[in-house]
Amino acid sequence: MSTTTADTAGTGTAERAPLPWRTLWDNVVQAALSLVLALVVGGALLLVSGRDPIAAYRSLYYGAFGTTDRFTETLVKATPLLLVAVSVSICFRAQVWNIGAEGQMILGAIFSTWVALHVKGLPPLLHLVLAFLAGALGGLLWSLIAGVLKAYLQANEVITTSMLNYIAVYLLAYLVRGPMMDPQGFNFPQSPLIPEELELPRLIARTRLNVAFLVALAAVLLALVFWRSTWGRRTEIVGASRRVAAHVGLNVPRTILLATALSGALTGIAGWGEIFGLHFRLIEEITRGFGTLGIVVALLGGLNPIGMTIAAFFFAALVVGGNAMERNANVPFALVDVIQGCVILLVLSRAYLFKRSSS
Amino acid sequence: MITVEMRGITKRFPGVLANDHVDLDLYAGEVHGLLGENGAGKTTLMNILFGLYQPDEGEIRVRGEPVTIHSPADAIALGIGMVHQHFKLVPPFTVTENIILGLGGWGFIDLAAAQREIAAVAAQYGLDVDPTARVQTLSVGVQQRVEILSSLYRGAEVLILDEPTAVLTPQEAESLAITLRRMAEMDKTIVFISHKLEEVLRVTDRVTVLRAGRVVYTSMTRDTDKATLAREMIGHELTSLERAKVLALAGDEDAVLSGTTGASAATNNAPNLIEVRDLHVRDDRDLPAVRGISFQVHGGEILGIAGVDGNGQRELVEAITRVRPIQSGQVFIAGEDATHWKARDFIRHNAAYISDDRHRDGLIFNFDLSRNVTLKVFDQQPFARAGLLNFPAIVRFARDLIARFDVRAPGPHIPAGKLSGGNQQKLVVAREFSQNPRVIVANKPTRGLDIGAAAYVHEKLLEERARGVAILLVSSDLDEVLLLSDRVLVMFNGQSMGVLRRGEADPQTLGLMMAGTPLTALRVQEKVS
């Protein structure tokens, strides 16, 4: 048969951008549908438990967007989610299932805090930049352990990165109780405060919104440029097929290493942002599960930088609004977990359907 | 006596009309050839008879009774068996174990009794099979006999064979033909699916030609000839190369050899562009696959590598193109020692590679055409500047290649997976030939293509040869090797059985060499006799 079975959709003469915008749009529609469905499920649960779903959702909405204070808090929560999602998306597109964002974030936090506390005599700006780079380096080294094992020994990265997460958690617990513990901290498991001049400037006075948010947006821009670069194309090819990549002369292990390194650096920066923008000291709950939630954000956003920005914002709103809902409408925060869970399930089943139709 | 009547069978797949009101009668005691190009609907029609697909329209009668065949189990119950191109055998099991597999029954298996019965059936049809042998130790030809035996043991009166000779040496094919004749004499009905004219004429009693899902021709085999069948199969004006191919198939090889395909540009002083010295390569299981091969390919020359699949051809090609490590020996590309190159170096030295598996090695199916045609060049000028991709240049390049290489696609932005197989292959050819290579390594470049698309690829190869390119062409299709090659090296079990020049290479000699007889031994025999 010489006739092609190609459909004629998408045959415009316009030059195609490197990112699949049509797919992005499909994703947005599907994600929105998932969200609506999840809210319906959550609403049904509220009804069953004898609460008013409208009031609950109203307080959730108000909690996330109601005032400048609440809205900036949503952006604050979106910051690490966005950084982790962008990081994870680079690995995922290379078919490296890096789920080690928690650990990489912790290492980024440890490295950058150490530089803040122990490097002396630098001008503040330089000191801050050095701490930033140390954070990136911490995340990079941690993910590179899994990257090297993957690239050269074909070790399953899902296992290595999740094991490295445990190591990072206990390393942090040890450090804040031992070598890095605050001597004046009444035995709380935390490090001393970083020098005040290293705290990230606030974008809006009397809110917690700080420069780290801009860094997260810069990471989105970086991702947009990355997928238009030869480096991004190499990553994509290696992700699509290791065999084809080898046949067209690409260095597959090196591409995997570069993707994991870049990814780890971005996650390390997320850890840096949490310390220098919010907590100003190393604490045990530094990641607050954002490393894991960031992976969900990446998947929900279809690994597309714009999609992930929307998804990060949405999840942040859900977390911030959920807290407010718990306080104001007397609805347990667990409802937020239910809604999150529903969204994740729906998105994952959609990814499965999508995969089937494209293979 | 009519055993099977298929009336008005229609089967649609998304975007394809695979069978269009097909009528087919099968008689007891006949070998019925089902002939057609790839995609003509032969296999679909037989899969319907075997219950793998349900027809959208039409009716099937078996021995006069209208039947609905929901599954292969139904088909087997009606006495219909099918041997697929890919055998469905469990390698570590014995022949007997494979044959009784899935037959059902309760409680214990009487293996000895089954073995006796199977041996009896084998003897009845002259099938030389040892029921106690493990399948993994059997050659492809014998495995096929096991499949046939399995169908007969299950009581098949109608036996469908889908391209049975594709995997066989000429000698094995000959022995299959004898078996089929014997089965026909015992009043079985045999359906012989093929796209090879010669063997259809030799083996069958009656022949039906399918084209684009329709029956276009039916005749007693003795009343027809190659030219007629070829015309019916292709159904449009032949290009000169296709005509040459058809003539070659019709046995008029002089027409092919005397210039229809253009004289080789190779002369003795043409540069030696591909050279392999005492090459040893291992396969994926780390077993020796290429065992000491040496040859040279000069500019303007096509060296054909003939052989039955799995005799080290793929490993040889992958070692030369540097995607597989070399155990020992040397490879030279354009005079440079390439033994320690990486795939990237091979590509950078203006060498093209067409893999035998475009799906696995050549294309990324969910990438669009513009990404696929630039897989090897996207990081070079003008497709990349300062590390950033230049999308307009990439798309322009893709449009140009699509037009130049006649890839039938609505545009450069559709995924490669949405193209037909022939157009996918054209896409690979377009990418590989677009950089004006000096060296081409092509492993089965026309695998799975219909005659039209295959002829196109052949034309392109001949054009490149005329430009002075050195071409290594691996193929298990003898017609292709004979049609294109200036010299033919026959590979068996990882070794060279000898090199034949154009004109010396006749199917009989090639067949013996492909089965493992070195050319030197053949020459000695000739002298003796």
How does the SSE layout of this entry go?
The complex is a heterodimer of chains A (359) and B (529).
Chain A lengths: L20 H28 L4 H13 L2 H26 L7 H18 L5 H30 L3 H21 L33 H16 L3 H11 L1 H6 L4 H28 L10 H11 L4 H24 L5 H25 L1
Chain B lengths: L1 E12 L2 E12 L3 E5 L6 H8 L7 E6 L2 E3 L4 H6 L2 E4 L11 H6 L10 H15 L14 H14 L4 E5 L7 H16 L3 E6 L2 H7 L2 E6 L2 E7 L5 H9 L5 H10 L3 H8 L11 E11 L5 E11 L2 E6 L6 H8 L7 E6 L2 E2 L5 H6 L2 E4 L3 H5 L6 H5 L10 E2 L2 E2 L1 H14 L16 H13 L5 E5 L7 H16 L3 E6 L2 H7 L2 E6 L2 E7 L5 H8 L4 H10 L1
Helix pairs in contact in B: 4-5, 9-10, 16-17
Q: What is the top-level CATH class of chain A?
A: Mainly Alpha
The best one-word shape of chain A is globular
How much is the radius of gyration of chain B in Å? 25 Å
End-to-end Cα distance of chain B, whole Å, is 48 Å
Quickly give the structural class of chain B: alpha/beta
- The third-level CATH topology of chain A is ABC transporter involved in vitamin B12 uptake, BtuC
Number-wise, the strands of chain B total 22
| Multimer state | heterodimer
Whole-number total of structural domains of chain A: 1
Separate helix tally of chain B: 20
Query: What does the radius of gyration of chain A come to?
Result: 22 Å
By DSSP, the count of extended strands of chain A is 0
Percent helix among the residues of chain A? over 70%
Element string of chain A (H = helix, E = strand): HHHHHHHHHHHHH
Q: Which stretches of chain A are low in confidence, meaning pLDDT under 50 for 5 or more residues running? A: 1-18, 354-359
For the largest interface, the chains and their residue counts are:
A-B, 35 and 54 residues
Give the biggest sheet of chain A.
none
The rough form of chain B would be described as globular
Reported for the largest beta sheet of chain B, the result is: 6 strands, mixed
